[in-house]
Amino acid sequence: MANLKEISRKIKSVKNTQKTTKAMKLVSSAKLRRTEQLSKRAKNYALKINEVLGEIALRVAKTQGNENISRAFMANENPKTVDIVVVSADKGLCGGFNMSTIKLVNKMIAEYKSKGTNVRLRIAGRKAIDFYSFQGFELTQKEIGLSSAPDYDRASDFIGEAIKDFNNLVTDKVVLVYNGFVNMLTQERKVVELLPIGLDSVPAVDSESMLDIEPDDDTEVLNELTEKYLNFNMYYALIDSLAAEHSARMQAMEAATSNASSRVKSLTVEFNKARQAAITTELIEIISGMEALK
């Protein structure tokens, strides 16, 4: 009977866990729908600001020459110091979401170091901070709470430190790494070279451009747009990563719920077998006792 009690206790424990994982899946699903809508709107804005930025940058390059354009647009194939900005989750229970990003960052660090490049890490997200702190990696910047609740002003302040070091010639490149949202079932690791901003993929300026800016104002507008571009790309990465995190957690909790259901079934079968064996043993004892009294 002690065995039956133990199995019964396990069944109850697994069922309680199943209720928790099912509830967490529903919560993540609701959060994902809200974050997904926000991500779509932010993406549209990011695409438009990138388009405008590229157009003005090309215009400045044509009118003033590439040598006079901002350092933010000058390619650097052999950087001496690189800032890697990492976005991870503040919480776990989302499968391999965080570890996938960390593995990519580790690979990048190894590649840069093999070329003799100094690598610094700026991290938003408790999980990556804990990992690299445990590894003894000195972090240039760390922020907890930003990835779980993206805020434009905080995102601007966070990336602003990396921009300041780039402008002061402390670093030569700023790279943003995060796990982005593709759909309900898929996340995609993304690497964005924030600085310097590459213009190779920007289409040529259209002669019928809708932009109407005085030539003397091009550089001033470009500098303002560059700052907005960097700030918003950081903010968008946080939103995109949060949507991917909810998606990953929803899948993880769905898998956990399914596993719990399978475990309950196997324990129930085990319980029934043990119960049947106990009943059979009791019957044998009763029959044996009756035979002894004859």
Describe the structure.
The protein is of the alpha/beta class and 294 residues long. 62% of the residues lie in helices and 14% in strands. About 2% of the residues have low confidence.
Please, how many helices? 5
| Quaternary structure type | single chain
CATH level-3 fold name of the largest domain: Pyruvate Kinase, Chain: A, domain 1
Amino- and carboxy-terminal Cα gap = 29 Å
Lateral strand order in the biggest sheet: 3-2-1-4-5
Radius of gyration over all CA atoms, rounded? 29 Å
**Please, how many domains?**
2
Structural class: alpha/beta
- CATH homologous superfamily grouping of the largest domain: ATP synthase, F1 complex, gamma subunit
Give me the CATH architecture of the largest domain, please: 3-Layer(aba) Sandwich
User: Element order, helices and strands?
Assistant: HEHEHEHEEH
Summary?
With 294 residues, the protein is an alpha/beta fold.
Features:
62% helix, 14% strand, 5-stranded mixed β-sheet, alpha/beta, Helix Hairpins, Pyruvate Kinase, Chain: A, domain 1, 294 residues, 2 domains
Topology diagram in text:
Elements: H1 2-64, E1 81-87, H2 97-114, E2 118-124, H3 126-134, E3 139-143, H4 152-167, E4 173-183, E5 186-195, H5 218-293
Parallel strand pairs: 1-2, 1-4, 2-3
Antiparallel strand pairs: 4-5
Helix pairs in contact: 1-5, 4-5
